[in-house]
Amino acid sequence: MLDRQKMPEQDPKVRRSNFNEVALGFTDDQAIEEAKRCLQCKKPKCIEGCPVEVRIPDFVKYVSIGDFDSAIKEIKSVNALPAICGRVCPQESQCEALCILGKKGGPVSIGRLERFVSDYESKLEAEIPKKPEPTGKKVAIVGSGPAGLTAAADLARVGHSVTIFEALHAAGGVLTYGIPEFRLPKDIVRAEVEYVKKLGVTLLLDSVIGKIDTVDELLSDFDAVFLGTGAGLPMFLNIDGENLNGVYSANEFLTRVNLMKSYKFPDYDTPIKKGKHVVVVGGGNVAMDSARCALRLGATEVTIVYRRGEEEMPARAEEIEHAKEEGIKFRLLTNPVRLNGDAKNWVTDIECINMYLCEPDESGRCKPMPLAGSEHKIEADVVIIAIGTSPNPLVPRTTKGLEISKHGTIIAKENGATTKEGVFAGGDAVTGAATVISAMGAGKIAARAIDEYLKGK
Amino acid sequence: MPFKILKKQELVPTIHLMDISAPRIARKAQPGQFVILRIDETGERIPLTIADFDRKKGTITMIFQAMGKTTTQLSTLKEGNDLLDFIGPLGNPAHIENEGTVILVGGGVGVAPVFPQARAFKEAGNKVISIIGARSANLLLWEDKMREFSDELYITTDDGSKGHHGFVTDIVKKILESGTSVDRVIAIGPPVMMRAVAGVTKPFNVKTTVSLNSIMVDGTGMCGACRVLVGNETKFACVDGPEFDAHLVDFTLLMNRLAIYQPEEKIAFEKYKCEREGCKC
Hints:
A: alpha/beta; 16 strands; B: alpha/beta; 9 helices; 32% strand
């Protein structure tokens, strides 16, 4: 009774060659059993760990008595994207990390229960809350990623007229172009975007703000603007050979696979280099996603090269575990120094050096140092650089009075207010690359500040 | 939000003109910028330089050569048909001011993006010398339109069927050698042509600008597919370009990277032809 329910998953041997979702979700009985484990604490700690303020014990209680309709209604009154959160939030370091049962048989599987009730609802017609009285105020949201969708939903719920401008041809931002199908099916993203639209939000695709309209122009049509433009430009290692053919940024590789569906080439037109020996550089979730996509495209060997140790990897433990189960190789404490190519400019191998860890640096992690004389080559016909991104420059370059940090991120107060009146920002555009849920949290906080701002106008 | 094809015309064999209804983009488009389009749900995103725009009518004109799967499929669409996605205006506008004498070089389908620049340079008060080239006379684009905004217009064909028998670079070289003072050269066309023009103008130290047509996916600075080496620095053609100083561009790298997907392009094209014409295999 005290042990956590195990969520069924696709067998690693099978799933390594398909793009179907890895985790299969709880059954009704499993969900009820798991929910019954919740102690319904008087002062629940879990809520403090939720950036979007879901009243966790309340919804879990409904699940425990089999009232899934009330459970999902409870979540959706504060979180418009539960099927996404239930799948990609790092619950182990948020709500579940604070669960009192953590010391006894493991915390309640809050994320899996959230996922369960969202999936339960997706089989039915989602209930749309009654439209509030219109306030007559208009808000423009730039970017339809997790920050933008959350801000849009919260602002629409209180009666503002909301329009989202999305640069790509599909909504969702990183949920659509970045996170692969096997971790977050695109039907789920589409359904949650539809729900946000049903709250009364207008969505304009193919609209690159900074180009088709500037933020200043938006301000002449709208009472406030929220910038959720995400982390844009991919970073490279700045070593020789990075422009060889076969070398991808993780953003390009994942965008081809996820947004453009190149794993279905030639039924979809966008090509991708599949590679036999694929090397992924980096240790975050994006690196894990890239490696696991490369494997599913048919690579015979996929190796993750990371300059620190497993302890220091920023990826979720579950993602690292899944990657290992699928047969991804890890070369830790290894850092690339050069990429070599053939006469036709194709990458042939990646030259690396072994590292060792010494005293912690300003990030609190141990600083990796090269071990002289340990240079070696790893064969590679595709290399994916997944070492992070810097913010997209299109909006900052074209917006007067919007201050930017030296890293290119938008400077914003805790409530999302930028240095430009009426303009708020949140998510990766402000913090640099972070998580889906922290972007959603920022969207929520900014929505509240925008509402306050509009009331004073 | 589909985008309607208002006009469709085959200008010369394999090269087509299309006017797309896109008022929001037409309102903002500038010479030197490009659009990204996607025909349908399974289509790829391809960049095309803006050949002209009409703010009143709300249209963007594109000119493209039917070469691979996507451009061939595009060439089969008719007036009244829709494009699923049409995104722009992307990239930085061309830098146009009164510089004095400007040579504009357009090769093949590259004449199209050169045209709005010729017009803008002329309107800015420059002396405009245009050189347009094609493989053969029947493939030569927009001679009349170019003539309207050029003080001098030269034509070259590879086979000698019209104008100078040879390459656009021959004329560029002749003008520079004649001692004519030239303040800037703009060259748009196949990478080999742009590299050759850069090679000709370098000894004369004439500022030369090229527009790079690298492979793109999103076109907004997110993926890095379009990266090029300019002055030994990695730049993204979509947000840093598409125009760059020709004397600093690594054209060999550009051409190598343009060839990345040749095998896949062939597979996609063969499949498309099979489906259209009935498979013989």
